[in-house]
Amino acid sequence: MNKRHVCKALALAALAATGFAASAGDKGPIRLLVGFSAGGNVDLVARLLAEELRAELGRNVLVENRPGAGGRLAAQALKGAAADGSTYLFSPDSWAVFPTITMSEAQLRYSYSRDMAAVARVVSYPLGFFASTSSGVKSLADYVAKVKKNPDLALYGSSGAGSITEFLGVLMSKEMGAKLTVVPFKGASEIKTMLMGGQVQVGIMSPSDVLAEDSRNIVPLGMISPRRSALAPQIPTLAEQGVNVTQGNAFMGLWASSKTPAAERERMEKAIQAIAAKPGFKKKLSLAYMESDFAGAQELGKQVRELQAFWKPVVDSSGFKPS
Q1: Residues 24 and 64 in one domain
Q2: Percent helix, strand and coil across the chain, each rounded to 5?
Q3: In terms of residue numbers, what domain contains 146?
Q4: What are the tens digits of pLDDT across the range 67-119?
Q5: CA 97/CA 307 separation, integer angstroms
Q6: Were both Cys, which of 7, 140, 199, 269 would link to 194 (CB 3.0–4.6 Å)?
Q7: Do 80 and 29 reside in the same domain of the chain?
Q8: C-alpha 150: how far from its chain's center?
Q9: pLDDT tens digit sequence for 267-291
Q10: Can you tell me the distance from the alpha carbon of 180 to that of 220, in angstroms, rounded to the nearest whole number?
Q11: What's the whole-number mean pLDDT along residues 237-260?
Q12: Domain boundary among 216, 241, 266
């Protein structure tokens, strides 16, 4: 059984534990809102976390999928939920960064700075640059040499319009001296299918989406991170190969309504800190090419602000307009 299949099995086990178990303790269940469909990487980690939180807090924890609009529908649901410590948003960092740059608060229907409160970072993972074997590309150097002469190679798949995978392509264009053009898909699984079939030649996504036995016809060209991932040390970084783009480390974390009592947020933060240190939790994450990477509310809030400041000029220079 490969890593991908193990992850699916773990997700199903977590689903059974979090979705159908009776509530524990006197209080009602805690809800983790997830702005993506069931079965994907975000949902998988949310269910693993929910299973651990149930044991840690003595309460049932339910994962509630609210897919759509790049996670914004789940964020809107968080704003509208009772601020009593029973509802949280579990999401990749992208929802807190890019919509705040590309959209007004009226469009978002919430204010990140006023309505949301960071609770904890849970996991981190690098993004990578991958090619279809049909492209004939053997390495990053080979790609850089060929892309300037082959327009098809300049089309890269991203996991959604306005996502980090789109704007990483903007940085890579500058470093490579070639104009890369984004082709947005509905998620990484769709990019993977297109790469395997040769309908798209290159794409940016998490290694967990492609480093599996069923990921045929896909060649890793490099990790978009400051250093090699301990979970995939065989893949060099882009920077090692002369393309100095290192901002592709992503993470998933937990947010609450800013109206949630501080004591409730701190209780959740401490629970996640304890869970993140558990060897069993770390092992399950490693099967999905992710690392347990706890950070508290203060550090998470600071990290998001730094990412917003870094990406704003990149997004502005791209000319991106949300649909």
Answers
A1: yes
A2: 45, 20, 35
A3: 130-241
A4: 888 889 999 999 999 999 999 999 999 999 999 999 999 999 999 999 999 99
A5: 7
A6: 199
A7: yes
A8: 30
A9: 999 999 999 999 999 999 988 889 9
A10: 18
A11: 96
A12: 241
**Cα separation, 89 vs 98, whole angstroms:** 17
My answer on whether 207 and 149 are in the same domain is yes
The first and second tokens of residue 201, run together, are: 């030649």
User: Does residue 259 sit in the same domain as residue 285?
Assistant: yes
221 and 129 in contact (C-beta within 8 Å)? Answer: yes
Both tokens of 182, joined, read 């984004």
Each residue of 59-84: b (16+ CB within 10 Å) or e?
A: bbbbbbbbbebbbbbbbbbbbebebe
Query: How far is C-alpha 46 from the geometric centre of its chain's CA atoms?
Result: 12
Do 115 and 14 sit in the same domain of this protein? yes
The model carries a pTM of 0.87
198 token code pair: 């040769």
CA gap 110, 116 in Å, rounded = 9
Give a yes or no: residue 16 inside a domain.
yes
Number of structural domains (the chain) is 2
40 CB-near residues (< 8 Å, 6+ apart): 187, 188, 189
Quickly count helices (H) and strands (E) in the chain: 12, 11
- The domain that contains 193 carries what CATH number? 3.40.190.10
Strand order, beta sheet including 218-223: 181-184, 155-158, 202-205, 128-132, 218-223
